[in-house]
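Chapter review: from sequence to fold.
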Amino acid sequence: MESIIHYFETIPSLHRGLILAGGIALFWLIESAVPFFKFQYNKWHHAGINIFFTLTTIVINFALAFILIKTADYVTQNQLGILNWLPSMNIVIFTVIGLLLMDFFGAYLAHLVEHKVKFLWRFHLIHHTDTYIDTTSGNRHHPGESVIRFAFTTLGVLVVGAPMWMVFMYQTLSVVATQLTHANICMPKKLDKVISYFLVSPDMHKIHHHYQLPYTDSNYGNIFSVWDRIFGTYLYLNREDIVYGVDTHMDPKEHNVLLNLLKIPFQKSRSPKTE
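The token string follows.
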């Protein structure tokens, strides 16, 4: 475990980039060979849009990274945050608790608030407009949302008291989990269900991408599913009944055109329907 911690303390930017690119490449190959949904779409055009948003997210996170580093150093040096107030314990248990808490603030809470606050939903909406969910969809975030997500991650570091190695570990696991749960693949139903009791499984997250309420407002977790179960935001829908997208923006001229996607947060809002 110490060697793993040391690796994430000093993880090179190149390695983080390779994990991101390698994950997309791996799941791209798998979903191309054995897709769950056989989409009638231009996969490269779709990927181009989503990779653009992936790159803007990388640039924003890189530009603001010094804030995250300073925050992690501050809480560590001053022994602030939940982890620093806990009694001494096994490092594995300590790490799991830290990752659970970081996932709550950096993913679950951020995601929940984006759905409940109309102004923030305007930016998160771009992620939900995708009607061809595949592994490239995981990082389909408007630049405005990337800033919002970064703010919640920084809040998480401050409240949790996470050291920088844990932040890097959380972000790495988050990237891989996102690529897996968005990939156009499916696990055996029983396996998927068992996994979903603790981790976010592919089926569990794909339900969140169903085009109508109440499913859109459910299953907010990213790595761990326990927060959805604790706070009652978990819903189930048969995978065969899932329709991707969001009912307010089902026109390909809106959800499959980059320029319009960038403009959506500043367009007149539309009211969703309830299934």
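Two observations follow directly from the output. The CA atoms of residues 70 and 164 lie 9 Å apart. The radius of gyration is 18 Å.
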